Amino acid sequence: MAGDRENGRPGPIEDYALLSDLRTAALVGKDGSIDWLCLPRFDSPSCFARLLGGDDDGHWTIAPSGPVQRVQRRYRGNSLIVETEFHTASGVVRLIDSMPPHEKNQDDEPCVVRVVEGVSGAVEVDLRWVVRFAYGDSVPWVYQDERSEPVPDRCIVAVAGPHTVVLRGDLLPQRTAKGRAHELAFTVRAGEKYAWVMQWSPSPDELPAPMDPLQETKDSEDFWRDWTRKIDYRGPHASAVYRSLATLKALTYAPSGGMVAAPTTSLPEVLSGNRNWDYRYCWLRDATLVLLALDNYGCVEEAAAWRSWLVRAVAGDPADLQIMYGVNGERHLLEWEADWLPGYHGASPVRIGNAAFRQRQLDVYGEVMDALHLARERGLTETAQSWALQRGMLRHLEKIWDQPDNGLWEVRGPERYFTHSRVMVWVAFDRAIRAVEEDGLPGPVESWREIRHAVHTEVLAKAWNDDLGAFTQYYGGTTLDAATLLLPAVGFLSGDDERVRSTVHAVQANLQHGVLVDRYTTGAETNEVDGLTGREGSFLACSFWMVDALALCGRRKEAEDMFAELLRLANDVGLYAEEYDVHTGRFTGNFPQAFSHLALINSASVLYGGRTREEINRRGTSAGSRQD
């Protein structure tokens, strides 16, 4: 850890823990350094970007100045308060990090609270505060401000253009002679506490009022304790389910209810690779899993807020439906490269925005229709406006359902007839038919039945490969895709269908490594499907999909064993990245990844008694497969 600080490089992805105030998020490493923080929203420019560069790109480190013998770290209960204990030869100090959650008060500004307390002995501690706005590109003007009215106040203010942060604390760091940083060295003895608060401000002319850091830490703990009381889960591996649900809550933008896929951008899918994307946005593809995860375990308010965000985001001309939106439903997520940042351990480019928002991905129609169908089944009242919106989507899908697309993996190669996309087109019409049959909503059900039947017949004829004994990645192809594991989960075929069982076997034989499953085959050369070079790590969500598929195929013991093994891959505070590199034993991809935690929660439902799409719904009608 000391070595990482000395060379200015960020630590391994798995060394980070998540802080969140339900507006934005920070990542703090085992070395006591906050290396990533965007203010005031998840998708705002960063003020700490060491994660994608080095020390000079912004960070806030509090850690022992000398050698550290051991680090112990945990979240306090089910909260988002991180406690890191540094054991040294002279004693032990505890670093307590949090971001006070602001769920209801829309006027509260983001802040980070850090407390150091002496546990035993006496430990020399260093504090280094380096603010760099605009993804490390903007060095602020930093000055001390001291006032006597309305209350005595002494702070450090960092300003650059529209960006302002204020640092207050028991001890304030001083400007260094070089490096354009602020530093402080002090001794912490057993029983002593020192605290700091860094607040964002929309203007340097109106600084936010001072806060009591110890009270804010207590209030944060109370918030998370009260929130987790609503979680209803009594199955095994409860700590993993609770941590995953808290992570999803932490990735939710409270003012709108939208959930970002991850709080980071450009963490590489393979170390030193170029498969680097910005995930600080809300994907429609996550819609069904979000509703299942939240509603299954008692988070009804969050499920309703997500449904409301979903309806608002997709409102408008159905022809303009996007696969992803900003946290407030923003449509334009233009992609550009921050070429002054070298990237995580040199993995460039660093991308801001995501050009995939312009892609045609037909599976999102199925995801949205499935999510809103589930919302009806779970007791969320359907409105005339919401059903009219869905009718409009179906009218547009009737015109384009037979076109190729870029698929759920957002490939940047040529459009194809991806099997998963075709299946999700079937899902869209299936859920519309069920809305008429089961909920009495109006619609041209006969026309929808014809298309549903045509798509089902087409997939069975064109996606199946006799030589492979499996459904392939796309029509006429010879490669496999882990997304075909979802066929029984969405009800396209039952788990006991021999074609499903054979596909599961083929994916295990060709894409699985131990308990880890790749999305599809990648290699050193340019991949003709995704248009990119290099390989990637194993996709953790796909690994949990295999758990679900095994369970639905009747192989429950294998599914439970695999689930338990996957839980052991979480980092020390229970978090998952997007992918896992089997060659290095390291996390890769953006972190923490909502999709991974959603898949974990859904697997717990499949195995241990939550409500899934394959089980009886609240009205007592079957939600099983429909193959006609």
From TrEMBL:
Domain Trehalase-like N-terminal: 10-123
Entry keyword GTP-binding: no
GH15-like domain mapped to chain residues: 236-603
InterPro entries associated with the record: 6-hairpin_glycosidase_sf, 6hp_glycosidase-like_sf, GH15-like, Trehalase-like_N
Keywords for the protein's UniProt record, in alphabetical order: Glycosidase, Hydrolase
A single MF term (Gene Ontology): glucan 1,4-alpha-glucosidase activity
A GO biological process held by the record: carbohydrate metabolic process
EC number in record: 3.2.1.3
Gene3D superfamilies, per database record: 1.50.10.10
UniProt superkingdom: Bacteria
Keyword Hydrolase: yes
PANTHER family for the chain: GLUCAN 1,4-ALPHA-GLUCOSIDASE, TREHALASE
Protein name, per record: Glucoamylase
Organism: Saccharopolyspora phatthalungensis
